[in-house]
Design a protein that fits this description.
ion transport (chains A, B), homodimer, Probable magnesium transporter (chains A, B), mainly alpha, EmrE-like (chains A, B), 350 residues, transport (chains A, B), transmembrane helix (chains A, B)
Chain lengths: 350, 350
């Protein structure tokens, strides 16, 4: 557990990013509530008065700062480390929601928070060292090695099958189609973002990488991947409940990103089997915490907003196949809900 | 993660012990059900027909085998490793209950199982090596070192305060009093059981330890500690709901045992900070899984047996101060319940 300076910077940036993004949810929600009080029209039913509310804009800026910190973190530490730490933003927002918005956190939600923190600690303790990179050409070489080309090829084929065969057939009835597409693209987004971030970091340090076409190629790939990912994430969130999409997306996106990073950057080379096992375990613990937080959040919501909670069906599995109309209706029932979906859209983007 | 042969033996024995104990619950419960069908009188309302049911006896024997395996495991591997693995018996019984007794496992209960397993993996991966011990005199020396005498002294003082001051006052209204006493005594039980087990192991290996008075002293201490612990565990289980007592007891007992073992056997000496952190995290993950399993078990039970489940109160915290009469009534409502309390009494004993 001896951290290089770069790894440390990456961890701190990833943590800061989670704090900023988590806080931004709360500030934006407070802004929305205030706007609703002033104008009497809620965002969920078509009001745009929140655009005049300074608090909402402060929330927006906080989120952008968080996303930038996240982007820079990728330039310093392995994706295997940075991506799972993103789950901490959920804790920050859950804790602040309880303190500032006086929303009640389910006792099992507290357990979910504890698990996210514990899992993150395990991941951080066993995080691999970032291999020093001195030029964008090196990253290009890593991205064009056989194993990674195979991964990239499989991802692209899978995405095509999902987009052209499954999406028209059951994209609106099976939550795994849209979230699958954006998770698959997301793993490529992170790899290209990391490549671009590292190039820009090297440029800032005095080793200009903008003279190489590879840097511009990565920039183009970032644009394509992020736009596709965002597009399908929006589709997923428009079609299904945030509480269903978020944990599934988090699981698939983080898993695929770790796989991609392990193949491309060989994060696990030189690590012993114990460390790798611990990292995977830490990751599963964070996932469990995330699922627990989301499931219990939904319980609280169901009971307070809809009233008819049955103890045998708060499970994720039973809600995997929501029909379009039904869940979309849920989304519009309450302003904070659709707004949260809106902000989560950006939170989960990279 | 290089295991010594002894550590490996200890881990396998601890796992086997969990399988046996977990299975024994199910066999005994099946035996009880059969006995109830044959005689028409349930154990909960005073029937003893289960004593004529061979299945019940097979369950009893399975449990005793499991307890012996557990006892022997302590002679081979550190308590820091063996004690937390005890949680796996809960998983075995939960899984078998679903398969054999067709009891429905809450989806969050499945998550609890996953957490117990993942936490156990982390603990096993980072388990310290057992220091080789060649004589009971060595263990006696460890038990009489200043730090451990201080621990033992504090435990005894605390137990006295709890027994003579708190037990008469609020033993029947606060679940922490009785469970506290048996957890404190439990940590001393495990230490003395480990000492005795190691002496017997050495004797079997040809180095006769029965000639030393220390072995007999440990035998006496085991008896005193286990009897006190059992006595107060029975009181706790008679007064409060098993679903309340079990997780609290597991948390306190395991924590105190780890503390005692770390002080007495210096399990953490020579381990780096990363391994120790991971072990603690793994332990917290197992605890969370246990809590999740117990809480959701209670939910299922509440909904199927009592009908009036409110989503805001399945928490442990809200049930910490059950009154005597109320919870005792629950205990007697259904035979499987009181029988399970009965078997858990033995499961949790050491």
């Amino acid at each position: 557990m001896v951290f290089s300076k770069d790894n440390m910077t990456g961890i701190i940036l990833a943590l800061l990013s989670s704090v900023f993004i988590g806080t931004s949810f709360i500030i934006k929600k407070k802004g929305l509530r205030r706007a609703a009080v002033v104008s009497g029209v809620r965002a969920g039913v078509g009001g745009y008065s929140y655009l005049l509310e300074p608090l909402w804009w402060i929330g927006m800026i906080t989120m952008i700062v968080g996303e930038i910190a996240n982007f820079v973190a990728y330039a310093f530490a392995p994706a295997v480390l940075v991506t799972p730490l993103g789950a901490l933003s959920i804790i920050v927002s859950a804790v602040l929601a309880q303190i500032i918005l006086k929303e009640k956190l389910h006792p099992l939600g507290v357990l979910g928070c504890v698990l996210c923190i514990i899992g993150s600690v395990v991941i951080v303790v066993h995080a691999p060292q970032e291999h020093p990179i001195s030029s964008v050409k090196e990253i290009w070489y890593m991205a064009t090695q056989k194993a990674f080309l195979l991964y990239m090829g499989s991802v692209i084929v899978l995405v095509f099958i999902l987009v052209f065969y499954f999406a028209p057939q059951c994209g609106h009835s099976n939550v795994l189609v849209f979230t699958g597409i954006c998770s698959l693209m997301g793993s490529l987004s992170v790899m290209s973002v990391k490549a671009l971030g590292t190039s820009l970091k090297l440029t800032v340090e005095g080793k200009n990488q903008l003279i190489y076409p590879e840097t511009w190629a990565f920039m183009f790939i970032v644009a394509v991947c992020v736009v596709t990912q965002m597009n399908y994430l929006n589709k997923a969130l428009d079609t299904f409940n945030t509480a269903v999409v978020s944990p599934i997306y988090y699981v698939m996106f983080t898993t695929l990103t770790i796989v991609a990073s392990v193949i491309m950057f060989k994060d696990w080379d030189g690590q012993n089997i114990g460390s790798i096992t611990s990292e995977i375990c830490g990751f599963i613990v964070v996932l469990s915490g995330t699922i627990l937080l989301h499931v219990t959040k939904d319980v609280e919501r169901s009971s307070s907003f809809r009233g008819n909670y049955t103890p045998t069906s708060p499970s994720l599995s039973t809600r995997l196949c929501n029909s379009n109309g039904e869940s979309h209706k849920h989304e519009e029932e309450d302003e904070s809900y659709s707004e949260e979906a809106d902000s989560r859209r950006q939170d989960l983007q990279v």
